[in-house]
Amino acid sequence: MRSVQGCCSLRKSLFTISTSTSWCAWRRIILQQCVRLPVRLPAGQQRQLQMRAFGTGLASGGRMGSNNSDKSDRHLVAVREERFQELVAAEVAYLATVPVKPVSMRQIVTWRNARDMVPTIQKEVPKRFALRIRLIETLDGWQAIPELVKMHDLLTGWYRDLVLLDYKNPDLASFVRSFKSIRDEGRHTIALSASGIYKLRNKLGKFSQQETNFLDEWLDGFLLSRIGTNALIDQFIAIASKEDGGLGRPTGITDPRCNASNICRFAAQVSSYMCYQRFGTEPKYIVQDYQAGRVGPQEKSPCYFSLIPSYLRYIMCELLKNSFRATLLTEIDISSRPVHIRVCNDVHHVAILVSDEAGGIPFEVGDQIWSYMYGTAAKIGTVNSFSTEGDELDNPESLTGYGVGLPCARLYARYLGGKLSLTSYPSYGTQAHLILPRLGSPP
Ligand SMILES: Nc1ncnc2c1ncn2[C@@H]1O[C@H](COP(=O)(O)OP(=O)(O)OP(=O)(O)O)[C@@H](O)[C@H]1O
Ligand SMILES: [Mg+2]
Question: What is the mean pLDDT of residues 317-323?
Fold first, then answer.
């Protein structure tokens, strides 16, 4: 391997030149338009450029890097940081136009070996980051909103980290390290994007229902893409061996014998504790199991099914935080109005009903409860500035936050192939219906 003198010794600035791989038109355009390489190629030789940084093979139909002979004549070249950034920006712009191939939850959970996931990760994850970067850039005035700028910077950094990984000879430990840091840095994504969009809308001064709908749909798309990306990343970390820094779980993020009622109980305990912290008192709740073919609650037959426990926990926490909070705010004797959580299942589905007697939601509110622009913060009329130091709104476990609980819970339900809906009985209470398909056949 011949190293060519460059301007910067940063590892992240390295890319490789190969004489033998297939020529990708889009890369040539990027290189011709954005980069004047600080290297002179030998005259007469038909050189082709393959950036290791760009070695995702995303648009090359798999040909790039697949040629064995390119190992023999690969040269390392260094480019300046600004040029590298230009390349990243150009590749992001291109990739955001490439259709994203949906990777279903069922497909994700069938992976049992982290190495087998590498080609899909290489192909699909950077593409999804690129899509989200471009989504932010489509918003008029995003540069004036610190939360959106931060989100944009984070996504660009993750994109760069991912494309710099060596996909030909994957070192699983470094993959796991990168993914863990992406997940860690991205833990405030919902708060960042929701408060960013909220501020963007308020900057408009007067805004129409159409604009609100547009921003709701924008957030739906943005966050759904995040759920899909995280599912891939989490499955990778979960099935990677402990030696590689993973969790070494043979079934990955899925629990093939997930006890749905225990998860509901756990979510109820967590939400109840939050109420205690906020109001100094806890609501009453009852969790019951029901099974198809048997009438009445089944005390000794809990509902087991194959599911991703963290997703169900998230959805249930959001529903229960709302019901508990509403119950405690009504200030009528809470012991006579427990929140009921009924977990019902048949061979194909699990259906969970959460019902409270907290007075319901006024009819005129209607579908607004599914808007990211409705909810406690919006009603108060303020959203605090996002800071990673963490105020109450930044804390994903706070009882009430940005007004994203219901729309986000519905996104998770949809991602799992299920449904979440709410029925309000004004002055009586609210019923939330969650239906999820089993990921596998019943155990
Ligand atoms: N069970 C319920 N009873 C009464 N009102 C409810 C109930 N569930 C939801 N709501 C109303 O719907 C609004 C939106 O709920 P959502 O969970 O999306 O946001 P939030 O609870 O205000 O904030 P976040 O969930 O982000 O912490 C709530 O603010 C509340 O007014
Ligand atoms: Mg809520």
Answer: 94
DSSP state of 66: -
- Find the 382 Cα to ligand 1 centroid distance in Å: 16
User: Is residue 94 one of the residues assigned to a domain?
Assistant: no
Residues 298 and 231 in one domain: no
Judge if 300 and 366 occupy the same domain: yes
Q: Is the pLDDT of residue 313 over 90?
A: yes
Across the strands, what pairs with 384? none
The amino acid at residue 273 is Y
SS3 content of the chain, % helix, strand, coil (to 5): 50, 15, 35
Ligand nearest to the CA of 422: 1
With a 6 Å cutoff on the Cβ, whether 283 touches ligand 1 is: no
Last residue of one domain, picked from the residues 196, 211, 239 = 239
| Ligand 1 lined by 402 (C-beta under 6 Å) | yes
Q: Is the CB of 369 under 6 A from ligand 1?
A: yes
- Identify the CATH number of the domain in which residue 171 sits: 1.20.140.20
Residue 177 belongs to domain spanning: 105-239
Residue 413 host element (H or E): helix 405-415
Residues 267 and 351 occupy one common structural domain: yes
Together in a domain, 119 and 214? yes
Whether ligand 1 lies within 6 angstroms of the CB of 356 is answered as yes
- The Å distance, Cα 218 to ligand 1 centre, comes to 20
Distance CA 384, CA 393 (A): 7
Strands of the sheet containing 429-437, edge to edge, are 285-291, 339-345, 349-356, 429-437, 419-425
* Number of structural domains found in the chain: 3
How far is ligand 2, taken at its centre, from the CA of residue 320, in Å?
Answer: 8
Structure confidence by residue, pLDDT tens digits, 87-102 = 878 888 877 777 777 7
Check whether residue 371 and residue 397 sit in a common domain. Answer: yes
- Higher pLDDT among residues 93 and 293, named by residue: 93
Rg over CA atoms, the chain? 25
Q: Answer yes or no: are the C-beta atoms of 404 and 190 closer than 8 Å.
A: yes
Ligand 1 pocket, residue 330 CB under 6 Å? no
Q: Which residue among 188, 189, 322, 380 is best mutated to probe the pocket of ligand 1, counting the most ligand atoms within 8 A of its Cβ?
A: 322
Shared domain check, 416 and 368 = yes
**Does one domain contain both 326 and 213?**
no
Q: Is 403 in the pocket of ligand 1 (CB under 6 A)?
A: yes
